[in-house]
């Protein structure tokens, strides 16, 4: 067979390649057309919108997650929901969002007039969709509102109601952590935190973890948890809040310069945070920059009139020799606490401490005794013990001072209060121990009481003179002269001892 004939036969036995390639191209083209058609025909979904969320949407997301919202976003959310519920009064979900937005406004501005508005909106939500039908957002909002007002017993009831109906709904557990802590049940708060961490690992959980650890005296764990909260923070407002809380932890540890840097970081991130301004004022006062501290306190109070900051400003002015100027913030404190009480806000601890130190200690004892019957937490125990001391009853005061210090929380002010009470009872050793603890924890904890603590520690640093003779020798101790050993004689005695030693007798089996 000719060579070309063989080649022709081989070429005829194989299928044509051009035909297979054409089929592949046609199939690919058909698939592309079908996919494109499916993408065009499928209706648009909410998740397909690539536009960033608007101000009201950002605020709604933050409020729903229990996170702080920016002031501009919060204002937009309030306006949006108010307009909506005016046209749709039976929309229970929108009423719950509006109530939570009002509550966040109250916390951000420290204006107690937002609290009744929040309560009214949340109750409208519960009227539209009762708790029995699972209005969890409104129930959680009511619990958060009660915590913000300082009514921890009511907050506990709402939180436990949500937990009973929906045990896996994580938003109930921040309410319970705050409520149990306010009631002084720190073990229950820790259990609620553990359950929260099983269900959720976001910003709210990390902030509550830091709070629980701080209350138990686990300072390093508290800082680590708050740093993790910073990692979970998404918006500048959330990051600024975390920086402020880290500043508070650094301040309580006595690391004033670090606290100042954290407060300033919070202000750079969110200049509208008044609590960070108050923290910076506290740190500046501790560093001896009293004029700047007064300026920052007044700026903070101009943005958010917080009673505790009014008390701190008044005491700073007193420490600077400006007692006449201190009367103004003290008068404002009285006005603010009275207004807050009318709006259901509990400021009994701050008002009791003010009365104990600057007004009527007997009234402080009555006020704080009533508060102790409701909320047996560390802050109330410390304030009541101090008020009893200022009223001249150190024996009763010590019982509450022990409750405050034995909880594990490490706080210089609380340690100082117990030391002063113990010194009043003649317990110099106990006073010395707790004064040293206060100075180790934060040597500049108060512009008024920190200098007094240093003076007291110097006074009780050594036992008082005039005690027994064996405690206070009249002449300095001199080391006595002891006889020097003679190595030669000691060697001779050792040799004689070896010779005199009898040899052991053989044993008899």
**Beta-strand share of residues:** under 5%
CATH architecture of the domain at 360-462: Alpha Horseshoe
Backbone CA Rg:
36 Å
Please report the total strand number as a whole number. 0
Element order: H for helix, E for strand: HHHHHHHHHHHHHHHHHHHHHHHHHH
How many helical elements?
26
Which class best fits the helix and strand makeup? mainly alpha
**CATH fold descriptor of the domain at 360-462:** Serine Threonine Protein Phosphatase 5, Tetratricopeptide repeat
Biggest pleated sheet: none
Regions with little confidence, pLDDT below 50 for 5+ residues: 1-19, 32-44, 505-509
Instruction: State the shape.
Output: globular
InterPro entries: SRFR1-like (IPR044650), TPR-like_helical_dom_sf (IPR011990), TPR_rpt (IPR019734)
TPR repeats: 240-273
Protein name: Tetratricopeptide repeat protein
Pfam families: TPR_16 (PF13432)
Kindly describe this structure.
- By secondary structure, the protein is mainly alpha-helical.
- It has a domain of 103 residues: Serine Threonine Protein Phosphatase 5, Tetratricopeptide repeat (Alpha Horseshoe), CATH 1.25.40.
- Helix content is 73%, strand content 0%.
- It has 26 helices and no strands.
- α13 packs antiparallel against α14.
- The protein is globular and about 105 Å long.
- This is Tetratricopeptide repeat protein.
- Keywords: Membrane, TPR repeat, Transmembrane, Transmembrane helix.
- It comes from Streptomyces goshikiensis.
